[in-house]
């Protein structure tokens, strides 16, 4: 019996490990191409910081990769054992399909607990640090927010362009100022520019720009037809300031999303309400409390999906009875997409009267119920 359990566990573990690794690679690669590579290419982060960002992505994608990996791994393992008549031989020796699958289900249960820990503690902290690193890099080197050769509109009422960037120095720097109607009011050109964050006397975040060999062109107020001559000034060195609070956010201004909160923070938010003003109405407070509680349940339900999808994969693999990896992977993707579609539908419910914190468990209950029915049917043959 131990030999059979070891064989089933080995088959499941190897297939699940390879599948999970493949899904982690795909999910991380997507984020790397979309965010990290752009940040490195634009100079917002260094190469070492880019590697740190990639490492922080792994705990974030693992809770999504584990359900897919275990589902695919169990389908592949039991599909191969079914096609080679190994399951038939085990059944002939008096073992039920549920008993045969016990090592695989215990394996999935262990990873469900790991996924819960990742969802509740590690992934939120990694997500927060990931965003903080990106923002912190921009604050340490404000010039990194300027992409050379492109028009940059991060700052309200300003358009900035630099031909090149050398560390903290911007070369061939242009700055155009616009009024509230989007009309050009001022243009500045400088051979070099240095950007530095600062705080004005009112305690507001500003960006201080130090210009070298600057030339300023100021349009006269009300000159909409370009009929009046502009005024010009030059300076070997000068500086200017404008608000930059929307660009450099950190510390207390760092806005965290609800799914980035750890267990203790979610429980605290469930008592006071997520982003609820002190003078909010009772209905708004209940809404904020339910949002936090639903997010906590979503983390737990997502972790439990590692087990529920693996549970469904056992009778599904026996029913399909295919050994081809491609076929089983395709079935796994179809099942996973259906599960996540049901989860998304449940997540749209926000009204506390409909108990979205309990509704978020509905997809797992559907999967487990379907798995139990299919397992009973498969055990009869």
Describe this structure in words.
With about 375 residues, the chain is an alpha+beta fold. It has two domains: about 1-140 and about 270-380, no CATH class; about 155-245, no CATH class. It is built from nine helices and five strands, in the order H-H-H-H-E-E-E-E-E-H-H-H-H-H. Strands 1-2-3-4-5 form a five-stranded antiparallel sheet, with no helix packed on it. A hairpin with a 5-residue loop joins strand 3 and strand 4. The two termini are about 20 Å apart. The model is unreliable at about 250-255 (pLDDT under 50).
Our count of helices gives 9
Helix/sheet category: alpha+beta
Low-confidence runs of at least 5 consecutive residues: 249-254
Q: Overall pLDDT, averaged?
A: 81
Strand content: 15-25%
Question: Strands across the major sheet, in which order?
Answer: 1-2-3-4-5
| Structural domain tally | 2
Strand segment count: 5
Order of helices and strands: HHHHEEEEEHHHHH
Helix fraction?
55-70%
Gyration radius, rounded: 29 Å
Distance between the termini: 21 Å
Taken from the alpha-carbon principal axes, the silhouette is: elongated
> What about the largest sheet?
5 strands, antiparallel
């Amino acid at each position: 019996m131990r030999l059979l359990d070891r064989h089933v566990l080995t088959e499941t573990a190897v297939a699940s490990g390879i599948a999970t690794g493949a899904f982690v690679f795909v999910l991380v690669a997507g984020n790397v191409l979309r965010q990290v590579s752009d940040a490195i290419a634009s100079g917002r982060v260094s190469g070492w910081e880019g590697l740190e960002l990639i490492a922080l992505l792994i705990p974030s994608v693992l809770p999504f990769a584990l359900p897919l990996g275990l589902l695919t791994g169990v389908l592949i393992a039991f599909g191969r054992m079914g096609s080679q008549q190994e399951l038939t031989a085990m059944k002939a020796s008096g073992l039920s399909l549920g008993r045969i699958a016990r090592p695989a289900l215990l394996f999935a249960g262990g990873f469900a607990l790991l996924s819960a820990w990742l969802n509740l503690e590690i992934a939120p902290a990694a997500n927060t640090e990931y965003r903080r690193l990106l923002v912190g890099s921009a604050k340490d080197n404000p010039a990194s927010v300027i992409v050379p050769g492109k028009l940059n509109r991060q700052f309200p009422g300003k358009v900035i362009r630099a031909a090149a960037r050398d560390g903290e120095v911007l070369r061939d720097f242009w700055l155009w100022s616009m009024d509230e109607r989007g009309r050009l009011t001022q243009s500045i050109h400088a051979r070099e520019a240095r950007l530095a964050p600062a705080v004005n006397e009112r305690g507001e975040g500003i960006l201080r720009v130090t210009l070298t060999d600057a030339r300023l062109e100021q349009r006269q107020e009300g000159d909409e037809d370009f009929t009046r001559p502009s005024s010009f000034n030059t300076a070997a060195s000068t500086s200017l300031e404008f608000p930059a609070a929307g660009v450099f956010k950190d510390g207390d201004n760092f806005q965290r999303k609800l799914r980035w909160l750890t267990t203790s923070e979610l429980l605290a938010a469930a008592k006071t309400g997520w982003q609820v003003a002190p003078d909010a109405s009772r209905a708004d407070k209940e809404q904020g409390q339910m949002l936090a509680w639903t997010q906590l349940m979503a983390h737990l339900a997502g972790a439990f999906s590692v087990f529920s999808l693996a549970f469904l994969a056992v009778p599904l693999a026996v029913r399909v009875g295919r050994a081809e990896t491609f076929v089983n992977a395709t079935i796994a993707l179809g099942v996973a997409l259906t599960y996540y579609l049901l989860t998304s539908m449940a997540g749209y419910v926000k009204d506390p009267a409909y108990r979205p914190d309990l509704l978020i468990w509905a997809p797992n209950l559907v999967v487990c119920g379907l798995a139990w029915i299919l397992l009973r049917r498969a055990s009869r043959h």
